[in-house]
């Protein structure tokens, strides 16, 4: 790996893994341990990685992003109280985003829809 600063690690369904790092963004490891960077995140300083609402979500120092199965990130959840996102969870159809200045709540389906719209316009 290009860094020893891993803040979160999650197993991928194909036997690989995602590694959230400080300074080097999100890394996708294949089953053989080969690493590649996941492009498109709002910031390379990651603070959270987790599976929420059937998708991978990443909290960064520049906002939140949804990551699809191929590892392509789409930035979502504009209008946060603070850009540093430390926690993301879904509850009863709502996406809860914990930041350094409070919590934002948005409709999970809307966040996923916005992510798909942004992804298809690239």
Structure explained in plain terms:
The strands form 3 sheets. A 4-stranded antiparallel beta sheet has the order 1-2-3-4, with no helix packed on it. The N and C termini lie far apart (28 Å). Mean pLDDT is 83; it is low at 116-122. It has 122 residues and is mainly beta. It contains 1 helix and 11 strands; from the N terminus they run βββββββββββα. Helices cover 11% and strands 48% of the residues.
Question: Keywords for this structure?
Answer:
mainly beta, about 120 residues, 1 helix, disordered C terminus
Using DSSP, what is the number of strands?
Answer: 11
Q: How do the SSEs run, as a string of H and E?
A: EEEEEEEEEEEH
The number of helices is 1
Radius of gyration, whole Å: 13 Å
Strand content: over 45%
Distance between the termini: 28 Å
- Unreliable spans are 116-122
- The percent of residues in helical segments reads 10-25%
Largest sheet: 4 strands, antiparallel
- Class based on secondary structure composition and strand pairing: mainly beta
What is the overall pLDDT average? 83
Overall, the morphology is globular
Strands side by side in the biggest sheet: 1-2-3-4
Q: Layout of SSEs?
A:
Blueprint: E1 6-11, E2 17-21, E3 26-29, E4 35-37, E5 46-52, E6 55-60, E7 63-67, E8 73-76, E9 85-91, E10 94-99, E11 102-107, H1 108-120
Antiparallel strand pairs: 1-2, 2-3, 3-4, 5-6, 6-7, 7-8, 9-10, 10-11
Brief digest:
By secondary structure, the chain is mainly beta. The protein contains one helix and eleven strands, in the order βββββββββββα. It has a four-stranded antiparallel beta sheet, with no helix packed on it.
